[in-house]
Amino acid sequence: MEKTSINWAQMSDKAIVAQIGNYVRQKRIRQNWTQTQVAERSGLNRWTISQIEKGEPITLMSLIRILRILDSLHTLNEFEVFEEVSPLEYAKLKKKQQQRVRNKKYTSDKESSEW
To answer: What's the structural domain count of the chain?
Structure first.
């Protein structure tokens, strides 16, 4: 069976919440846990687990707790931000480093000649 990609941009907010709820329900069922067990392990009440599985909104903190218990925090990998240095900034940084190296060398040569 082929896995189809979801077009998140074309979904309504309510449909996205429902998709997240479906994901949580499927992960819970695969681990053979009840809503009560997930609730107890995450420190939430069963009503919150039921709400997300029904496609109702819950807080972000509650979702994080649920994902942690279901060993699914990896789903948040898309939120990781990598700082990238532009080529121009990189060139400026290298130039500064080269100037510092030259200054240190000049200073050390001058000191060694005085001895």
So the answer is: 1
CATH assignment at residue 26: 1.10.260.40
Dump pLDDT digits (tens) for 34-55.
Answer: 999 999 999 999 999 999 999 9
pTM (two decimals) = 0.68
Distance CA 21, CA 14 (A): 10
The residue assigned the tokens 């030259």 is 102
Cα–chain center distance at 18? 21
| Alpha-helical runs (H) found in 1-115 | 13-30, 35-42, 46-53, 60-69, 87-114
Contact 20, 63 (CB under 8 A): yes
- Supply 93's token pair: 């940084």
Q: Is 3 domain-assigned?
A: no
